[in-house]
């Protein structure tokens, strides 16, 4: 749920009454406090009240704040809204402790590390944990340490997941998709066991109001360790074996390799493939069993299903955009790169080699488009004699409307693991864009003019930040004994201030000069406005003093929406270079995210002589939100972005 950064609104303190009410609701929902007998003594009642208050404070400390958030979840990227609860315990920095969606509360790993046993704890091998931290669900064959499993692991119950190597440290939170407690065996079973919602390494874990990195898990938690020992986890995991002969590095259960691996199951590689069977796709099954060639019919079916998936994806994710985000006519290359290739079920290098258009019965994308036209899924026409373009798609056709999505390979599988890079795929591939995840800071400087130089004579530099200007002016006022004796907020003017600051150009200059005094804040503000401005954009942990300042005010990143060819909207982005963002990798990311074509061209009239070219990225469709989100992932604050919408009609 939090693989991508959620949009979190400003947090507000939670009222004491609301905090107690929310904490009591959590205690009741998760059954954390035993019922109090009716025949207790006053001393026992007082002790129970003390324990209850301590439990409240442990779950929701008194400094907790709440904020609304919005994110996407599931294969259809359904928009989800809810509330996060941010707080800190003594000696710790503030973190998201709970989040609430549809009235149901979920604990973060930070809450689980401090409050053992508030939810059932399940275990899986460490190799599967790495898949969970990529967003995969925990599949039934991936369960370790049972049966029996925790009696509280009922269907719909919130559950924690830990590695068998560190069984007392929860690293993921999810919801049981089945009655895990009722399982009598896991070998040979299929299906989701736990729907993964949050894990160490996701955006909820890394969120911090002070922008500190996420906290690493502890080595051991005594409260959780007791539960693991009581369940005999060590004995339960003895049968698990890492099968080195498995080409995908999967976990074979009980030493057998004739079924899907635990890793593969945790990766969710068994979902529907456009049919009603709850089984692995033909491609995935054949890959694990080492089968050789796919038949031409299987390749044809894969390409047709990929095209339908691409259209369905646009229809469900961009429902408010004109033509669901597709800009017609669609060229052959655009159809292949945006509607087919991303949705091919290529899980292994062998499948990637077999799933080629030239190995289909159509042999070319041109004939494929004409075949879709013959099925009346699309309308096409020949262009320039050698290309067939799609001019319309029947989005209401039952084949598209009733399409059932199937599981797709992870990005690292398609781009890395399928090429034999295993788990290091995303670490070793150089995307050419090191701006992702960077931290940016815009520092403003002020330089005194010639008239103001006497006020800064004691300073050894020429550029000052606003606090430094204030400090120097205050020191000058004290040195010259200019504070009014009757009102410490007023500063008496001396000849230097009168000539350098109040030279008669301002509307209030005559009044100030006539009175002979001015409020201290007004004086400092007037001096700042009279100084020359400079700025520096500082990246990551670079010392601001080491970055050469540029004159003027910080440039704005420009996002422009405009209409072309009558009714087609495009989104343009410029000014990326100033914020250390390479335009071409940025355009490549948006091309995949927006499933539309992009281009990078020099911005006309923006480059001066002997300067580097200023590039402009153009994306098909109204993609302002996607651009802003991509910029946020590169450390760009919304204050540094200027949006111009030229598509709105003038009144």
From TrEMBL:
<dbReference type="InterPro" id="IPR001950">
    <property type="entry name" value="SUI1"/>
</dbReference>
<dbReference type="InterPro" id="IPR039757">
    <property type="entry name" value="EIF2D"/>
</dbReference>
<dbReference type="InterPro" id="IPR004521">
    <property type="entry name" value="Uncharacterised_CHP00451"/>
</dbReference>
<dbReference type="InterPro" id="IPR048248">
    <property type="entry name" value="PUA_eIF2d-like"/>
</dbReference>
<dbReference type="GO" id="GO:0003723">
    <property type="term" value="F:RNA binding"/>
</dbReference>
<dbReference type="InterPro" id="IPR015947">
    <property type="entry name" value="PUA-like_sf"/>
</dbReference>
<dbReference type="Pfam" id="PF26292">
    <property type="entry name" value="PUA_elF2D"/>
</dbReference>
<feature type="region of interest" description="Disordered">
    <location>
        <begin position="242"/>
        <end position="296"/>
    </location>
</feature>
<feature type="compositionally biased region" description="Polar residues">
    <location>
        <begin position="28"/>
        <end position="41"/>
    </location>
</feature>
<dbReference type="InterPro" id="IPR036877">
    <property type="entry name" value="SUI1_dom_sf"/>
</dbReference>
<feature type="domain" description="SUI1">
    <location>
        <begin position="557"/>
        <end position="635"/>
    </location>
</feature>
<feature type="region of interest" description="Disordered">
    <location>
        <begin position="1"/>
        <end position="51"/>
    </location>
</feature>
<dbReference type="Pfam" id="PF26291">
    <property type="entry name" value="SWIB_eIF2D"/>
</dbReference>
<dbReference type="Pfam" id="PF01253">
    <property type="entry name" value="SUI1"/>
</dbReference>
<dbReference type="GO" id="GO:0003743">
    <property type="term" value="F:translation initiation factor activity"/>
</dbReference>
<dbReference type="InterPro" id="IPR058886">
    <property type="entry name" value="SWIB_eIF2D"/>
</dbReference>
<dbReference type="InterPro" id="IPR036885">
    <property type="entry name" value="SWIB_MDM2_dom_sf"/>
</dbReference>
<protein>
    <recommendedName>
        <fullName>SUI1 domain-containing protein</fullName>
    </recommendedName>
</protein>
<dbReference type="InterPro" id="IPR057429">
    <property type="entry name" value="WH_eIF2D"/>
</dbReference>
<dbReference type="Pfam" id="PF25304">
    <property type="entry name" value="WHD_eIF2D"/>
</dbReference>
<feature type="compositionally biased region" description="Low complexity">
    <location>
        <begin position="262"/>
        <end position="274"/>
    </location>
</feature>
<dbReference type="InterPro" id="IPR039759">
    <property type="entry name" value="eIF2D_SUI1"/>
</dbReference>
<dbReference type="Pfam" id="PF17832">
    <property type="entry name" value="Pre-PUA"/>
</dbReference>
<dbReference type="GO" id="GO:0001731">
    <property type="term" value="P:formation of translation preinitiation complex"/>
</dbReference>
<dbReference type="InterPro" id="IPR041366">
    <property type="entry name" value="Pre-PUA"/>
</dbReference>
<keyword id="KW-0963">Cytoplasm</keyword>
